[in-house]
Amino acid sequence: MSDSETPAEQAAEPQADTPVAFTTAGTVSVEDLHEALMDVVDPELGIDVVNLGLIYGIHIDEDDVATVDMTLTSAACPLTDVIEDQAKTATDGLVKDLRINWVWMPPWGPDKITDEGRDQLRALGFNV
After folding, report:
1. Which residues contact 81 (CB under 8 A, 6 or more apart)?
2. Contact call for residues 92 and 26 (beta carbons, < 8 A)
3. Of 21, 80, 92, 128, which residue is 20 to 30 A from 28 by alpha carbon distance?
4. Distance from CA of residue 79 to its chain's centroid?
């Protein structure tokens, strides 16, 4: 980060510890929103969407409306409504509105699962 960058440019820099793209312009903390999304659990696998690597980006505008770029383990997943409802409930009170932008590129793969997610899956009997 250079001294010539504006605060908005500094806020838009990706976080070093996650592969997620973050941008914010409003008053809510992107980190708080990211943390809240850890309460959103994939109904089939029982692991949160953050540790599964399903969150590709979080963008918050100046009106505290969040857009989450998110994918699923399968484009044919019939549970998008369940996950979207969970995400809205988990972020209620943090942002005025939450929108999920379902994205399919790049495709999700097991390589996107965090170490914590792998530990959780192993505890459930998955071989990852």
Report:
1. none
2. no
3. 80
4. 16
The token pair that represents 110 in the structure block: 């097991």
pLDDT digits (tens, 9 = 90+) for 27-57: 778 899 999 999 999 998 899 999 999 999 9
38 token code pair: 């850890």
Say which residue the tokens 């659990």 belong to: 41
Q: Give a three-class secondary structure readout of 40-83.
A: CECCCCCCECCCCCCEEEEEECCCCEEEEEECCCCCCCCCHHHH
DSSP assignment, residue 64?
A: S
* CA-wise closest residue to 15 among 4, 27, 26, 29: 29
Q: How far is CA 24 from CA 12, 71, 111, in A?
A: 7, 20, 27
Q: How far is CA 21 from CA 18, 57, 126, in A?
A: 8, 4, 28
3-class DSSP assignment, residue 56? strand
